[in-house]
Amino acid sequence: MEAAIRELFKVFKVYAGQEGSSNTLSRAEFHKLVTSELPNLVENTDASAIDQLMKSLDENSDGQLNLRILGQKQLKKKPRFTHKMEDAIKTLVMTFIKSSKGKDNLDSSSFKKLVSKQLGGIMEDANSSSAIKEMQKGLDENSDGKVSFQEYFTLIGYVAKTMSQKQSGSAETAS
Ligand SMILES: [Ca+2]
Ligand SMILES: [Ca+2]
After folding, report:
1. What's the CA gap between 30 and 23, in Å, rounded?
2. Per-residue tens of pLDDT for the chain, all 175 residues
3. What is the homologous superfamily of the domain 2-174 according to CATH?
4. Is pTM beyond 0.85 here?
5. Contact (Cβ atoms closer than 8 angstroms) between residue 5 and residue 99
6. Disulfide engineering: 64 pairs with which of 24, 78, 108, 157, CB 3.0-4.6 Å?
7. Domain ranges of the chain
8. How many Å lie between the centroid of ligand 2 and the Cα of residue 127?
């Protein structure tokens, strides 16, 4: 799972970093990413269909998309994957489905299991029950006590950010 997050974020950054904020995708960046990296994930890749897709994913209508949208689109679809980024998304989706046993939400105990099992290498607090509880609370936007797929992808984005900060941090010390 950690490798999948790393791969996903790496590709995301390549496209998001082309113009404006490097944390979000503009319309042009999103078009490029979809056509080059996600041809199997998005069934219709002509320009107007991608515009439509972007509109439907752009929750706050600021014309920018963040990492979370990528997972959102994928749930409950099982196409054959050929691209690295799609593979990475698939791994993350499958991890969620396995942990939730096919349900739409992770309850507290499955969330705890997922974090301690899958993210132990990245998060220092992955074995602390209270830290995981705090984390779950922070992710639970609709306060229903469970972690939805969307909320799970917020966590992925957070983990990816942490990993890239660590990487750039260690690069600076090295040079
Ligand atoms: Ca950008
Ligand atoms: Ca929730």
Report:
1. 12
2. 888 998 988 899 999 999 999 989 999 999 999 999 988 877 788 999 999 989 988 888 999 998 776 666 555 455 555 688 888 888 999 999 999 998 999 999 999 999 999 998 888 888 899 999 999 999 999 999 999 998 999 999 888 888 877 776 655 554 4
3. EF-hand (1.10.238.10)
4. no
5. no
6. 24
7. 2-174
8. 22
